[in-house]
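explain this:
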Amino acid sequence: MTNCWWNQFKNMCFIINYLVVLIAFLMSSGLGIADTWPTYRHDSARSGITSENVDLVALKLLWIYQSKFPPQPAWLGPARRDGWHKVDNLKPKMIFDWAFHVVMDEKSVYFGSSADDQVYCLDAEDGKVRWKFFAEAPIRFAPTIYRGNVYVGADDGLVYCISAEAGREIWRYEADPDSYRLPGNGRMISVSPIRSGVLVGEDVAYFCAGIFSFNNALLCAVDAQNGYLIWQEKISGFSPQGYLLSSTEQLYVQNSRGNPFVFKKSDGRYLHTLGGGGGTFALISDNTLISGPGNTGQMNAFKVNTKTQVATFKGNQMIVTPGVSYLHTDDSLSALDRYLYLDLIKERSSLTMKRDVVNKEFLVLGEDIDTPRGRELRGRLEDLNHEILKINQAIQDCQPWKVACSHPYSLILAGNILLAGGQDSVIAVATETGKTVWNAGVNGRALEIAVSNGRVVVSTDKGTIHCFGG
C-alpha cells in the first residue's frame, strides 16, 4: 500500500513538473497561453488587455465575413461646432455601435447586428455561420459569454440568455413590461431599450433599460442562470448609453454625452457622479475611472471613491497597465511612465494651488506692489512659475517613446504588442520601442479589435469582420 501511494505521489510530481516546464516553454517561446475574449474589451473593467501573445510571424488572413448590411448607428456624428463653448471639430461621443463589436471563445466569434436584429455565431476556424438568433429590434452592443451562455440586450427592451453551443433561447427578461414601441432611427424600438450591454459576473447579469428623459431608466440585476430579478432601481434623469463597467463593489454607468455615474453593485443604490467631458469610452484601473473623449479628445481620470480628478490626458483612448499607460490620439501613440507621471501631476497641482494663493495676495496689494511685501510676493511667484515649468518639462520626459500613428480608431494590448486600427488597415506596435512590427489591410475603418486563441479579429464600419491567425 505504501509503495502504491508513493508511486502515485511520484506520478503526480512528474505531471506537475511537466506542466510547469510546458508553461515555461510556452511563455519563453512567445506563444503564450490561449485566452478568450468573452466581453467588450475583454473584461468588466473594459481594459482592452489580454495576456495572450500573438505570433506575428505566422499571422495571416484566415477568413472574411461580410454582413449583407453595414452597421446602422443609433446616432450620427456631432455638430461641427459647439457655439456656446466655442469648440470646433467636435469629437463624436456616441460611437458604441459604429461597428459590430465581437466577442470570442475557444471555437466561435459572436456579434450582434444593428442592421438585421440578429445575434450571429461564426465558426472561428472558417468564419461560416454556426447559428443565428433573432431579437425584435437592433442589437447595438457586444454580447457577453459566460459559462456556456451568450447574454445580449436589444432595442426591443429585452435581455436574452442564449445557449452558446446551439443558439437556443434559455430565458428572456423585460425590465419594463409597461413599455411601448416608438419610431427610432427608422425602426420600431422600445421606450426602454437596452443600451448598456449586459455585464455578467458571479452569476449575476447587470444592465440598464431606458434612455429617454420622459421615462425613468432602470438599473437591473438578474440571476444569470434563470433570469429571475435580484434587484431593480429607477435612475431618473439619466440616459444610460455606453458599456457598463464594474469593480468589486461598484457599477459604473456611462451617461450618453454626459458624465458617468457610480452605483453600489449589491443593491443598485446611487452613490455619486464623476466629472469629465462625456463620451462612451471608459475603463477602470486601480480604483480610477478613465473616460472620454469629451468634445475635444480628452481623457479624464477620477478616483471613484473620492471623486477626485487625478489626471487629464489629451487622447481618444488608453491602455493602462501597472507600470505603463499607452495613450492614443488622432495622430500619435505614446507610452507613459504611469507612476512618475501621476507623481508629477500631483506635484504640479500642489504648486499651482500655491501660486494661485500667492497671486491672489499679490493682486490685492493694488498700487502697493512696489513695496517690500510686493517684491517678496513677486519673487515667490517667479520661483513657483519656474518650478512649474520644470515639472512640465519632466512630464514631457516621462514618455519612454512617442510615435506618429495614423491608426486612431481602436487600441488593445495583447501580450507585448499593441494592436491599433485605422482607415483600411490594422497595425501591431512593439510596446518596448513603439515600432510598427506588423500590418494588414482591412475593408473600412477598423473600429474593433479582439484577440483569442491565436486569432486577431478586426471589425469595421463596413460590416466586414476579418480574422487573422497562424
